[in-house]
Every structure is written in C-alpha cells, then in structure tokens.
Amino acid sequence: MAEGYETQPALFIDGEWITGGARDSEPVLNPADRSVLAEVPHATDDDLDRALDAAERGFRQWRGVGPDERGRVLQRAAALIRERADRIARIVTLEQGKPLAEAKGEVLGSAGLIDFHAAEAGRVYGRVLMRPAGMRSMVLHQPVGPVAAFCAWNFPALNVVRKLAPAIAAGCSIILKPSEETPGSAVEIMRCFADAGVPGEVAQLVFGVPDTISRRLLASPITRKLSFTGSVPVGKHLMRLAADTVMKMTLELGGHAPVLVFDDCDLDKTLDLLVANKFRNAGQVCVSPTRFHVQQGVYEAFAKGFAERTRAVTVGNGAATGVQMGPMANPRRPEAVAAMVDDAAAKGARILAGGGRGEEGGFFFQPTVLADVPLDAKAMIDEPFGPVALIRPFTADEDAIAEANRLPYGLAAYCFTESGRRQNVLAEAVETGMLAINQARMTWPDSPFGGVKESGFGSEDGPEGIMAHMVTKAVHIA
Ligand code: NAD
C-alpha cells in the first residue's frame, strides 16, 4: 500500500465489505506520478442483484425510522468524518491529485453538509387544507424509494456525501457507484456512515464498468430514483435508461460558467478572487469560472493581471507543502485540454500564460490563460474542465448577457459590477442555476445547488436536496 493511502477499495453490499474474490478489478492511480495505489474490485451481476434486494428491504425498514433518529445517525457520521478528516484528506489527494489543504476543506465541508441534512430530516412539512365541514385534505411528502446514484471523481468525498446524506435523511435507501478512479475516499466516507449506525441494507457501495452497473440498476423496478453527477452526454444516456421505469431524477451535469466583468468593478479584488477560483482543483469543477467576458475599458488590464497572477501559481504534487495546484485527475483531462488550447491558438487566441503540459510524470497541465479567444474555438463551446481561462472583450451589457446565455449549459455564472441596477438586471436575465455577484462562492449547505438547460435539473443541498427524494400524496378525508 502506498504511504498515506490507508484504505482498501471494496464493495459494500448488504452490510458486507467485499474486496475481491473472483471478480475483475482495475488499478487506482496516483495522478501525481502514475503509481498504482490499489486495485478496485468490480461488482458482478449477482452482486448488483443482491444490492437491489437489500435496498428494497432497507427502504421498507428505514422509511419507518423517525426523522429524529435518522438525524442523530447522520450527526454521528458527520462527527466521525471530522475525527478522520486528516486521513481521508490524504486519500483524496493521493487518488485525485488536489492539494492537501483543498482536500481537507472538502472533507470538512462534507461533514457540514451532513449536519445540515441531519437537521433537515425533521423539517419535511406537509399541508392540511380546509374543506366543507367534516372534510379535510392533507398533502403528504413520502420518501421516493431506493435510489441508484452515480458520481464523478472531481470531489471524491463531497460528491459521495451529496448523494448519501439527503437520501438517508429522507428515509430512502441508496446504492451508490462513485468513480472507480477515486474509490478509497468513497469507501472511507461510507465507513463513517456505517460506523454511525446507517444499516448495511440502507446505504451500499458498488464499483465496476459504469455502463454495466447503471444499465442493471436502472432497469430494475426496485430503483425509484436516479441521481447522477457527471458529464452532459452520460446524463442524457442515463435519462434515457431511466425513462423505461419512469423514475424520479436529479441530474447534476457539466457547466461552462460565464464571468461578466464590467468596467466599474473593483479590478484587483476581482482578479484575486477569480484566479484563486479558476485554478482550484485544477479547474475540474463544474462551477469553475471559465468564459471571462470583460468590458473594453478594463479588458487589457484584466488580461494582463490575470496572466501575472496565473504565472505565480505553484504547481506540483498535491501532497507537497506549498503547492497551490496539483495534477489533473486522470490522463483524459490533460489530453482534452491540450487539444482545446491548440485549437484555440490555431484559430487566433493569444496564449498569455501556460499552454502546455508542464511537469513530467503525472497528469499535469499548466495554469493557462488565453485572450481574444474566438467564439468558434472548441474551448468556447465544450466544457474544458481544466485549468484554462478564456478571455474575450465586450462593449454593451446586452452583448455580455447574450454571450452568457449562448451555450446550452446553465449551471453557474459570475458577475462583477458595483452597479445595483445592473446587478438586478443580471439576476433576472442570466440563464443559470446559480449566480455569484462580486464573489465566487457557490456552495453553501442551505442553498440549492443545481443547473438549468443541459446542465441538468433538480437541486442538491438546501431543503430542495431532501425534497428531491420525496414524492407527494394528496389525501382527502370525509
Ligand atoms: P464521464 O462522463 O465519462 O464520467 C463522469 C462520471 O460518470 C465518472 O465517474 C463515471 O464513472 C461516470 N459514468 C460514466 N459513464 C457512466 C454510465 N454509463 N453509467 C453510470 N456512470 C457513468 O467523463 P470523464 O472523462 O470522467 O469526465 C469528463 C467530463 O465529465 C468533464 O468534461 C465534465 O463535463 C464532466 N464532469 C462533470 C462533473 C460535475 O460535477 N458535473 C464532474 C466530473 C466530470
């Protein structure tokens, strides 16, 4: 076992940790140096059928447990995550690449999100409707049933918690398939839930060939909800599979966040915030600021200031002290980003910083700034999901808004302006699930997180996160 990788990737089915047997497996790599950290076992069809059977039993049992008790179990899980945060953060960094401080922040943030859902479990309210004498109508919210959830590798702890916590709070059971590229973090988070008292048939963990697993879980009439975090094409594919049994869905898909920077912003503060956020997690964040539309009056100063700050970002192994940006998480990302940068440069973009792979050995890509990027560059159309800032000028407010709304994505958007009137116009006009004005934080436990258009639908976090696991029933009594 690699130093610090204190975990063993395993399936968790019906309360049993399963590490191998005759199953297929695949290696888990450290993206900083491509070394093999462990092998992750693949679930067989029998494993998946066992998990489905357990999820059905788990749902019948767990829906009958009071919200206060569900909340207490979740609070214990949050406390265990805090206790184990240093060890889990090291695992996150080793298998995903992000700097240790970011990993620790992610793990502690996950605990905070669980605490929110623990309290929220007791805040699912119905309605009583007045009728003619002797009659009443009630509106009830009931847990939807067993959930099949799939999530990506970019937040190996938080993505897992975002699936588990609201489902458990709502009284559902859940089978989760996290990414095979970051299984150790998921295993350690799941251990916290199990050690806290979540029954083994209520929350289960599987790994394998993603398409095989999602086809089997979504074809089963036992599964009543699909929850997915990942790319738009895979989200569309899973929607089609889920259509056959008409299940409830939450889809957290990609983004291509526009950033509208107006002449009247506080330029230095704006640049400090944006550069720090652009290169967080090497840009592999669905709400990462990506298309920077900058008003003519500050365009050159913005591009120059962005490039200067970017060149000062320290890149290296996320486990080393002082590193601000680690490698990308897997070999697909630097390859995709390199192709986009080359394409943009060939179409006339100016490379102001970075532009190449950087360090040898791991899946690195340099923090990169491109200016004057033409609209037909691939990077201005497809989600780069990497450490690349794309900068373009605009003149009129209407042009900036039209540009923000040009793509089929609608997850996150950012605006920087001191004008209150303009802030109100933008809040109304930008087609997005989340809008940050004069700041860059999008994620708060009590605030809905989700997109519109092809970025998906349904929200995680906030009261909306638990309600997305409920169905509504109207009862009319004489
Ligand atoms: P991908 O879409 O192939 O994989 C993303 C995740 O979905 C992985 O964890 C994978 O295991 C899972 N997945 C893939 N196919 C699946 C299937 N048929 N059934 C169930 N799960 C499946 O892409 P990738 O190469 O890993 O990531 C690249 C793209 O994914 C990025 O460009 C970005 O658009 C998107 N992405 C989005 C988010 C997000 O938070 N919304 C997170 C990570 C990746």
Automatic annotation (TrEMBL):
What processes in GO biological process is this protein linked to?
gamma-aminobutyric acid catabolic process
The record's comment on protein family reads: Belongs to the aldehyde dehydrogenase family.
What molecular function terms (GO) are annotated for this protein?
succinate-semialdehyde dehydrogenase (NAD+) activity
Can you say what this protein is called?
Answer: Succinate-semialdehyde dehydrogenase/glutarate-semialdehyde dehydrogenase
- Where does the Aldehyde dehydrogenase domain lie? 17-475
Residues folding into a coiled coil are: none
Keyword tags: Oxidoreductase
Q: Which InterPro entries does this one have?
A: Ald_DH/histidinol_DH (IPR016161), Ald_DH_C (IPR016163), Ald_DH_N (IPR016162), Aldehyde_DH_dom (IPR015590), Aldehyde_DH_Superfamily (IPR050740)
